[in-house]
């Protein structure tokens, strides 16, 4: 049976580090790291995510500001709010919860955020810096995945990693971080031929395709490390259940280490968001 990489336990460690850095910033510079969260519309999942982020921020001793806007919010109104937050010295991190209502342009919104306050790491300047191997604010989910991977492989150099999925939020930045760690990286996606064979040759498989239980035991090399980024809701005997992009029970019998869903990557994403906020606050003092 595979070693379970416990995201809840690891995220608590990261949050303890965040709380310590918050205390240092308050004591040394009289600065309270503050995260501004913008939620547009009534998406239930987004409301849950925002609630959890704000709760964790307060627990870490950080400031948090919420802006809840109606579905009818215009692009101009949203851009104006972001501009105000960009120039507010009390705000160190800005997060606009995605997805946005369909009439709003997500790319325009992301580009409007000050890169120094872009704690999601989605701004083109931060994306470019990551690709170039330069210091930047890094997307939270891939950052959390890397922390989890290093629990199993303190030195990732030379490992063959397959990232299943090529999204801007997870797949592409994940590949960039693995390259920085000197892995040999393959990105697989919906057009990849013989994806199963690629995964079977991998020391590390990061599943971020958004397709429930896509990765089965036949895809996994014995002893490989499997990071499951997927969160998919299914119904089992009339009850809602969350499953990942990995067929957990079968893969856990073959892998060397694996993350669960829930309780794996999810908690790490929020912890890394707050970590990014303290890093942004520290950088803005320079």
UniProtKB/TrEMBL annotation:
Function of the molecule: Catalyzes the oxidation of 5,10-methylenetetrahydrofolate to 5,10-methenyltetrahydrofolate and then the hydrolysis of 5,10-methenyltetrahydrofolate to 10-formyltetrahydrofolate.
Family: Belongs to the tetrahydrofolate dehydrogenase/cyclohydrolase family.
Reactions catalysed: (6R)-5,10-methenyltetrahydrofolate + H2O = (6R)-10-formyltetrahydrofolate + H(+); (6R)-5,10-methylene-5,6,7,8-tetrahydrofolate + NADP(+) = (6R)-5,10-methenyltetrahydrofolate + NADPH
Record: residues binding NADP(+): 165-167, 231
Domain Tetrahydrofolate dehydrogenase/cyclohydrolase NAD(P)-binding residue range list: 139-284
HAMAP family in alphabetical order: THF_DHG_CYH (MF_01576)
Keyword annotations from UniProtKB, A to Z: Amino-acid biosynthesis, Histidine biosynthesis, Hydrolase, Methionine biosynthesis, Multifunctional enzyme, NADP, One-carbon metabolism, Oxidoreductase, Purine biosynthesis
Lineage: Bacteria, Pseudomonadati, Pseudomonadota, Gammaproteobacteria, Oceanospirillales
One GO term describing the cellular component: cytosol
Record EC number: 1.5.1.5, 3.5.4.9
CDD domains: NAD_bind_m-THF_DH_Cyclohyd (cd01080)
MF-aspect GO terms: methenyltetrahydrofolate cyclohydrolase activity; methylenetetrahydrofolate dehydrogenase (NADP+) activity
Quaternary state and interactors: Homodimer.
Pathway per the UniProt entry: One-carbon metabolism; tetrahydrofolate interconversion
InterPro entries reported for this sequence: Aminoacid_DH-like_N_sf (IPR046346), NAD(P)-bd_dom_sf (IPR036291), THF_DH/CycHdrlase (IPR000672), THF_DH/CycHdrlase_cat_dom (IPR020630), THF_DH/CycHdrlase_CS (IPR020867), THF_DH/CycHdrlase_NAD-bd_dom (IPR020631)
GO biological process terms on file: L-histidine biosynthetic process; methionine biosynthetic process; purine nucleotide biosynthetic process; tetrahydrofolate interconversion
Residue span(s) of domain Tetrahydrofolate dehydrogenase/cyclohydrolase catalytic: 5-120
Protein name: Bifunctional protein FolD
């Amino acid at each position: 049976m595979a070693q379970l990489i416990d995201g809840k336990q690891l995220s608590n460690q990261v949050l303890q580090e965040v709380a310590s850095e918050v205390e240092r910033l308050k004591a040394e510079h009289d600065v309270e790291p503050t995260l501004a969260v913008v939620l547009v519309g009534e998406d239930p999942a987004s409301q849950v995510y925002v609630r959890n982020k704000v709760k964790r921020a307060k627990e870490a001793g950080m400031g948090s500001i919420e802006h809840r806007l109606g579905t009818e919010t215009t692009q101009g109104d949203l851009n104006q709010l972001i501009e105000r937050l960009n120039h507010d010295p009390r705000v160190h991190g800005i997060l606009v919860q995605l997805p946005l209502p369909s009439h709003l342009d997500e790319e325009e919104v992301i580009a409007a955020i000050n890169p120094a306050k872009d704690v999601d790491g989605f701004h083109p300047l931060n994306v470019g810096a990551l690709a170039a191997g330069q210091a930047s604010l890094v997307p939270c989910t891939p950052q959390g995945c890397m922390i989890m991977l290093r629990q199993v492989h303190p030195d990732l150099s030379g490992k063959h990693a397959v990232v299943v999925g090529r999204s801007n939020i997870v797949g592409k930045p994940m590949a960039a971080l693995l390259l920085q760690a000197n892995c040999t990286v393959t990105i697989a996606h919906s057009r990849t031929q013989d994806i199963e064979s690629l995964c079977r040759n991998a020391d590390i498989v990061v599943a971020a395709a958004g397709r429930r239980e896509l990765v089965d035991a036949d895809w996994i090399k014995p002893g490989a490390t499997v990071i499951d980024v997927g969160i998919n809701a299914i119904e089992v005997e009339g009850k809602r259940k969350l499953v990942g992009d990995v067929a957990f029970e079968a893969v856990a019998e073959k892998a060397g280490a694996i993350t669960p869903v829930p309780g794996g990557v999810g908690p790490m994403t929020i912890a890394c968001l707050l970590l990014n906020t303290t890093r942004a606050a520290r950088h803005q003092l320079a």
